[in-house]
Amino acid sequence: MSHDALLWINENPIPMPRNKQVGRDRVWRVFSNLVSHASKDDLLVWVSDLTQETETGLHRRTIRAARILLQEQGLLVDTQTRKQKGVKVFQLAIAKFQDAVQVHSRRDTPPPRHDDSRQASGQASGQASGQASGQASGRDTPPQTEQNLNTTQALFKLVVKAQLQHENWRTNTDPEAFKKKHAAEYLPVCEKALRQYPGGHNDPDVVHWVLGDLFAKTKPDYKVSPSLLQILANRYELPGGNLVSKEPDFDPELSKLMAQQVREQFRQQCKQNKQNL
Question: Quick one: which H or E segment has residue 122?
Answer without folding.
Answer: helix 117-137
